[in-house]
């Protein structure tokens, strides 16, 4: 295969040749090399970046960031930072040995020196400043990528460590992959019309649906049909996308009648069908026949229950040591739901959390400040819940060595925690998790999964 020549603008050539400084040149060499691998003919400007390489994995990552900083590089676009290896608001919470903690903090400092904003969150889309429909960006971190592409309609490839910061410094990415219209069309339809509305009332069920999406579509683009838009909110789409990106390589999905590119395609198709005097009704949302002819898989409640069971590795009869909430990071709306669930349980006479079961809540410092100001954290903390910011409980040593069986409503946490931190997991809904935290053992409500 012949690789097309990469055409650079005068400004891009100056970046590559060192005319904008040695740090920019170093970053530009990386972006140009990636363009060659992806077969891009040109580069395109971006409006923002989100950096995953600020999580400490070893000396090489620190050396790279410090080299860029030492060469005078700074980000050229608004840039947010993903979770780090430390919780700076709660010193000592992360049990890293000094040999790891010191360079982990140095890595955080290096990325701040490069001009990135110290957000330390895997959910940058929870900020008020987020990209809009059609904006080209360079986001890293799998759940952030799929949310940006699918829910916001922005455009980002699967940018990973080192490329993410190089794109931020140059303000450029290759014109390839998911930045192109032809790679954003669905490759598979998943018909969800058999799923009862009552079943879709919990984020964990959407995470289970994400597991099905990932397994069925792999790295393709799924179109989900048959879902009532009234049942959909951003937290549910977040849960779906995060798990789909874990069980598969999903970076983009569409939901008929809901996500922006699906709605746009439906509007165009509806106009075409109307002009032809034809009806576009059926199991598709109105107008979504723009993508008719796709191979179709019918999603059933049994598939979601099977996903729930596959995401569980623990013996459910063992005592429960912990509950992990907030992967991706808890939103303000999720704090509202948690506060309401705790209030309902208190009115029903439910007791405190079991003394042998710790409830951990991961969120960002920005969301935590908003939730505290709204009075949404107090009840959970009074029951003994512990808050974690800046990092995540499934990637750093936060849980105690005695916490070996953990329940979570997060499909992503369930996917990665057993391998990352050596725990066994029970996957369930938020209400199941809270009931289990009180009992100190797994409590199931099978009605939610039937």
Q: Using only CA atoms, what is the Rg?
A: 23 Å
Let me know the largest β-sheet.
5 strands, parallel
**In the CATH hierarchy, what is the class of the largest domain?**
Alpha Beta
Q: Which CATH-level-2 architecture of the largest domain?
A: 2-Layer Sandwich
Give average pLDDT, whole number: 94
SSE series: HHEEHEHEHHEEHEHEHEHEHEHHEEHEH
The best one-word shape is: globular
Q: How many angstroms separate the termini? A: 51 Å
Structural class designation: alpha/beta
H/I helix tally: 15
Bin the helical content.
25-40%
* Total count of domains: 3
Low-confidence stretches: 280-287
Q: What's the count of strands?
A: 14
Biggest sheet strand line-up: 12-11-10-13-14
Give me the CATH fold name of the largest domain.
Answer: Aconitase, domain 3
Query: CATH superfamily membership of the largest domain, which one?
Result: Aconitase, domain 3
Strand content: 5-15%
SSE blueprint:
Elements: H1 10-17, H2 22-38, E1 43-45, E2 49-51, H3 59-70, E3 79-81, H4 98-113, E4 138-139, H5 142-152, H6 163-170, E5 172-174, E6 188-191, H7 203-217, E7 222-225, H8 234-247, E8 253-255, H9 260-275, E9 296-298, H10 301-310, E10 322-330, H11 332-347, E11 358-363, H12 365-373, H13 378-382, E12 386-388, E13 405-408, H14 411-421, E14 424-427, H15 430-439
Parallel strand pairs: 2-3, 2-4, 6-7, 6-9, 7-8, 10-11, 10-13, 11-12, 13-14
Antiparallel strand pairs: 1-5
Helix pairs in contact: 1-2, 2-3, 2-6, 3-4, 5-8, 7-8, 7-10, 8-14
